[in-house]
Amino acid sequence: MRRLVAHEILGRAARRHPDQLVVSGEHRFGYAEIHDRALRLADALSARGVGRGTVVGVLDLNSHRFFELHFALSLLGAVIHPLNFRLPPADLAYTIEHAGDEWLMVWTGFAEAVAPLKGRVKNWVWLDEGTVPDEALSYSELLEAGKPQEPDSARQVLETDVYTIFYTTGTTGRPKGMRYRHQDIILASLSILHHLALYRGGAEAHAHDVFMPLIPFFHIHAWGTAFFVPYLGAKLVLFERATPDVQLGLIEREGVTWSNMVPTQLHMLLEAAGERRLPLKVLTGGSPLPKGLAARAWAKGVRYSLIYGGSDQLATAIAALPRGVDPESDEARAELATWVFPVPLAEVEVLDRDGKPVPRDGRTIGEVRVQSPWLPPEGYHNDPERTQASYSGGWFASGDLAVVREDGALYVVDREKDAVKSGGEWIPSALLEAALSEHPAVAQVAVLAMPDDRWGERPLAVVEVRPGHSLDEAALRAFLQEKVAEGRIARWWIPDRFEFVEEIPLTSAGKLHKAALKKALGLAR
Amino acid sequence: MRRLVAHEILGRAARRHPDQLVVSGEHRFGYAEIHDRALRLADALSARGVGRGTVVGVLDLNSHRFFELHFALSLLGAVIHPLNFRLPPADLAYTIEHAGDEWLMVWTGFAEAVAPLKGRVKNWVWLDEGTVPDEALSYSELLEAGKPQEPDSARQVLETDVYTIFYTTGTTGRPKGMRYRHQDIILASLSILHHLALYRGGAEAHAHDVFMPLIPFFHIHAWGTAFFVPYLGAKLVLFERATPDVQLGLIEREGVTWSNMVPTQLHMLLEAAGERRLPLKVLTGGSPLPKGLAARAWAKGVRYSLIYGGSDQLATAIAALPRGVDPESDEARAELATWVFPVPLAEVEVLDRDGKPVPRDGRTIGEVRVQSPWLPPEGYHNDPERTQASYSGGWFASGDLAVVREDGALYVVDREKDAVKSGGEWIPSALLEAALSEHPAVAQVAVLAMPDDRWGERPLAVVEVRPGHSLDEAALRAFLQEKVAEGRIARWWIPDRFEFVEEIPLTSAGKLHKAALKKALGLAR
After folding, report:
1. Rounded to whole angstroms, how far apart are CA atoms A166 and B305?
2. Out of B3, B15, B200, whose CB is closest to A347?
3. What CATH code would you report for B6-182?
4. Is B317 touching A (CB cutoff 8 A)?
5. Residues B52-98: tens digit of each pLDDT
6. How many helices (H) and strands (E) does chain A have?
7. What fold characterizes domain A421-520?
8. Is B208 in Cβ contact with A323 (below 8 Å)?
9. pTM metric for this prediction
């Protein structure tokens, strides 16, 4: 390849590994065929006006179509906007308009979500073989119409051209958009792979692995797998809608050795596996990995590494075993679920409220600040106010809270906005939630900040009790006292108030919907 | 780090791994201290006029001084010119003038080589604590004079700024210069490391390795170790002048696990080791690895990988074990000494004389063409004619000859200019030399092209006989007939003429000096 641009990664894979498989459900393509399809698409789209800088929204599952569109649009110098189908319709529409999407490519299953946008976006492509609405082009007809030749534009695309835009799923305010250049998203994606190859860990990755991402493409291009798997020339296994049972079948049939997923997906996969072993390397993150889940996964043969990052910073840190730790030990099991090290090229600082680095004592909480070559050059797209608050002097202030160990490992304990600030000190709600969720009668728990005259804020715990169990405040207080005695939490972290509810609402991303809870409890500001 | 620029790699190492050691002979520094020294140097040099674009020649051994200068000059946006102390004085002077060196930094041991340049370069720095000539500044005084603060220039250096210039040791014509930008040399260097981490091989590299390059810095910055070792935050062991015995002592004392070297250096290290085992991972290349040497090294515990590349293309391909090959097998031993695969991001084609890819049959010879994101943007510096002959359409025509196997592995058999073109077909002299050198009475052998009326060229073998042995043409012809029977060489490759000499002359880089031989035999054009 000549430059760090997306389509050159696929071109290289097609030339070097023409027959290496990209499996997509029941479809099977070689990289050469995927490349051929991307060239056809680019040719057909170019003839219809897609060109340098055109923003194209894609609302699809993790199909081969979505995968090849990554490269077809790159060939034209266009900008891909992977749409988050889990966003509420109003937010989805907001991101489409805010990004300036001139084209929408939509899979039938999401037709309803985009129906309100009909008159507002001009060009539509329907991503399946079914009934294509009158106003839309058909994806398969585009594929047939295009010629498999490299467009002139392909050679003019620069590594510094904007290539992708996507949005946070922030629970407060409108989603925030980030535009990344080719070199940003490629360096960040490769950095994940290189970390997994250079350091010991549970999700080590090498050229002989077979990769099946469970993370959707709209989350940082499936955490970079859209780029780093073809870069490696490795086998890629995709699927569209698939139950955990079907996923397990694919893992077995295709010899999958490596996957990525959030803890909820890991939970579902383990449930589906039942008594069967699941020897799989898993990169996990997005929310804390509960201890019980980690233990169950480990016992079944899953080996995992935790990743820390986000849409507005990309990959920042991944677990890695310190020298001398036996990778099969209990120490490794705990380490890989908890502590992370900056990925190659990234740097992290944890600062106290005076902007000074916190001591490396593994206990003092500060805010995570990140520096890397792939931070979005303009910060948040078209949002100077929120940009100023988060990006400055080459650093990104993440709003996440962490402690640092002597060897530089980080433990990200909470989001700053979720933490409780009591007497000027942070109480990390995630740590309290983790402690409370170990009680056998607790199904789910959310810790919220409650205004307090004396302390500013004090914690309040909202508890969903497991069906068939009973639980009261006194029992939970006693349980937390034990955790205090074990040194797991501080005494002054124990919540002032406990609320018991039938069900804790979740966000579109499967996280605790704290905003809704605050509103219901009258705590919203 | 913010950008792919050299000094940010050291900055990150200093912050993340402040106490990780850089050993330089008897000196021991942490990365933080090396960073501090680089800052002081940059400050002092800045005050004396070194700035953006200033070209600084460095004539030194692989010392900590040379290492820290890599970063001090980067901080100022200056260009480092690592000088090849093995070049003949006239060529050395040519490269200094052609590159436009405004500063020379010289180690005392090389004073004589640069004496003729006294009036021609304005600014001199003397790189040791001994007697400093009147006209030169002292390195240690510069270090004392500078303040350890980041210069303003550091933030303005771009990844696309020129950072380094160095020269080929071409045996034909003047050395050719290449200027590389920060991102070129860094991506190429990291690509070596990533290949060694992503693929199985003898010289696998990981974060826990201890690195001691034997390749001098003037050869592509010690084959990229100047950048990829601090990038990894790993321990780096350097030395100035050291006998193989001293090198062995360092390997043992410092726990060195990984090194790079040309086959001649490997030979010397093995000789020095005597009966001792040498469990070391070695990246080797620059010239073919003779079978006997490979076997001796392997038996002692050395595990190697062959690398293919050059000053005008940087890293291109490295050995990697195909799936299923036992890394301890004889198959692995032969594979890792012979076949190479393109490193991440690089691409290779082998073309016949019509510019078509040769069949992937492992037998048909063609010319190697290379594409990668780090080819020198302007081709050969200030040399449009030779640039046009070698760089076009994003490809570099290497002039090397290779065969390709079905899995895409390459076997680089010869330099085109060294090959014999007989009846329009190439006879690779390196393969003939390898076959002949297996004869027990052959000390060294060089195969040359001899003008021939009928075939254009025919091979001529110049043979240096091992002391105490006797050998004649008939014996060698019979020996080569055996190789023909084994399918190792073609019958028509057998040389038409054999010359026996007392000693074959070597070039400054330790390669067969074919130009001198041709001249002596009256074959020079």
Report:
1. 42
2. B15
3. 3.40.50.12780
4. no
5. 999 999 999 999 999 999 999 999 999 999 999 888 788 899 999 99
6. 18, 26
7. GMP Synthetase; Chain A, domain 3 (3.30.300)
8. yes
9. 0.89
